Amino acid sequence: MLDLELLKTFICVVDEGSFTRAAERVHRTQSTVSQQVRKLEELVGHSLLLRDRTGQNISVTEHGEMLIHYARRLLALSSEAVEALASDVDLEILRIGVPEDFDARRMATILAGFKREKPQARLETISGMSTDLKQRLANGDIDIALVKREPDSGPCWAAWPEALVWVKGAQTDSADGVLPLALFPQGCIYRQRAIRLLDVAQRPWRVAFGSHSLTGIQAAVACGLGISVLPASAVLPEHSICTDLPPLPPTELALISRDGALSGLQRSLVEFLRLELSQEKGIAHHHESSQIS
User: Each residue of 239-252: pLDDT tens digit?
Assistant: First the structure.
């Protein structure tokens, strides 16, 4: 293990080109500086400096040249670590719940923008079904969440209507007969909408494919494994819109948080998400509620 104090003395001697000047710079005796360099040479097992007869002037050996490079890097890292730990800015972890079907790249882009504004924030995202995210909020596992839900079904910081469509593959037939469905797991509002509307319309159906993943459902539909309900924003070029199935009322994407007061940084993230998503989706519906304090 290399002693940083020994490395610091070694760098000083090399920079000054003299034990005498190095001793004056570090406010130690020349003998102490010389002893520290010898101790470092013993640790690395190589001669690092060549001394003239007077001991006043020195030159660096090949091993010394190699070590000086690493010594400067180690001292720089040490100083950086000390400065980071001594900083008045404390890292705060912000835990955000995101629906399974929310575009991961889109969320990463939004959060990267927030990180540029608030570099002290450490961001963690947790994906899950909206019902699971609500439970995690209640348990205190996450601080903020975006959830899919029925419109106006509870307090939130902001909410955006989400248009839904029936989608199928180019070769999939949605005419009379048992409809093969590609669905998210139980608890998903899209699944609930699909099944309820088909039952009301007395259209027979069966679950042909299931996945937690948006990309999984999108691929299954494109390949003809089944018909599904997706947000209009998630429709791919390979998909066809079904116009012969019951019309789908919109759901809602809501920005919610755990009970209790949020920290300043958490409030900043809420506001950042609200503004970013509003720019994408148009004017947000604000809910003056217990979420806002």
Answer: 999 999 999 999 99
Gap between the terminal Cα atoms of the chain: 53
Q: Encode pLDDT of 8-49 as tens digits.
A: 999 999 998 888 888 888 889 989 998 999 999 999 999 999
* DSSP-assigned letters across all residues of 107-142: HHHHHHHHHHH-TTEEEEEEEE-HHHHHHHHHHTS-
Q: Where do you find CATH 1.10.10.10 in the chain?
A: 4-86
Q: What residue type is assigned to position 279 of the chain?
A: Q
CATH number of 164-249: 3.40.190.10
Amino acid sitting at position 201: A
- Which tokens in the block code for residue 110? 């939004």
CATH architecture of 92-161+252-281: 3-Layer(aba) Sandwich (3.40)
